[in-house]
Amino acid sequence: MARTRASNPAASADPAAAANPKSVHILPAQATSSPKLFVLPRAATRDAKVVTLPNPRYAKPTRYLACPETGLYEFTRISAPKTTPRSFLIETPVPTQDGEQMAQGSPRVDGQVVAGADLYIATPIDPLFLLIPALTAPEPKAKRMFVTSDDHFDKLPEEASHLSTVLSVENIRKLFEARMRCVCDTVQAGGETMFRINEGKLLGEILQKARRMAEGSLPLSMKEKFVTKALEAPILSQRRLPVRPTEPASADDSTSTPAASTPKTESEDSQASTDATESSTSVESQASTAPTSISEGPGEDTVKAAIEASEEVVALQQLKVAFDFIRASYLPPEISKRLAEMLKDETLSGASFAPLEGYLAQLAKLRADAMASRSVGDYSKKHSRDEEEDDAREAKKRKAEEEKKKKALESRGVRELKKVNTTGMRKMSDFFKKK
Question: Which GO terms describe its cellular component (predicted)?
Fold first, then answer.
């Protein structure tokens, strides 16, 4: 059998492999780092470069794609499940000596296997997030002053950063300053524009992004976990019992009078006829309405939620989930906490979350009551099951004691006779039968 790998073909112990060198193939050494696959946007030009900039959340060096025409992009990693290992096989046609491609159908290709099946997709990112750490530098709010954009840029970490190279591109610098104007108060001094962060404007900008995300781009997995399940109320099961029909009163009973009675006056006769007419009319009305008010079927179980969230509550929950996601992904921890506190103030945020808070409070109470009732029900079931097991053990114990007493009263002869093999022997009663 031909070998697929040999460290030294000349020292091979197989004489056939040594005689035929073509049967021996030496595999190249595996690379220490596997190449990565990047999916770049079509709008990006050839001048786009992969640069290193500080991450807005933790200020760590992170890779981004900077395009002079379309702006900045972040790389989103899409990983394959670890339970199903996968890889990519990349084929590249081998060019000829004159630089032209081989003819179509040529088997000569340069193949490469990528061990990891991860994809890095370039998605647009707002440059504002990269500037927020510099705009909200930790300093007293009263001492914040109007400074130039370059002064703000200098506050960003410079370690392993290509920020100065990126800002040297005029289009990208204009894009950065335009985004700064959306969240800063500006003044003109000495022919330059001075910037100072306005947290109210920043909150409005983040809320605007969160609304767009909540309305159409909220992932289904997040919506299912943080909206649907978060607002789901406990299930109530009610049994509807059938309603038995009531027998109407007989007209004969209500209008019957003794055959022989004293003579009545004219007023009494008219009153009696009136009473009979009214009673017959009431009986007919009861009979006509009886089928509509009687439910003749077996009892049915109705399952329904204790409460249901309204459309307003669902919309507020989606907005809050999107807002929290943006805060946790793109904002520094300190400014993220401040914006979370500002969101609770209706005058600052312009959004009232009172309906959502009321629903969540009611939902928490219902869940606590359901948990308490479930624990009580489980205890009662367990208690009844324990009593049944105790009764069974007691009965078994009593039976064992009775058998033991019977054995103690038996004589030795009886015990020996029980050990005798009576297979094939006739019973004693057979000798006393009538002939």
Answer: nucleoplasm; ribonuclease H2 complex
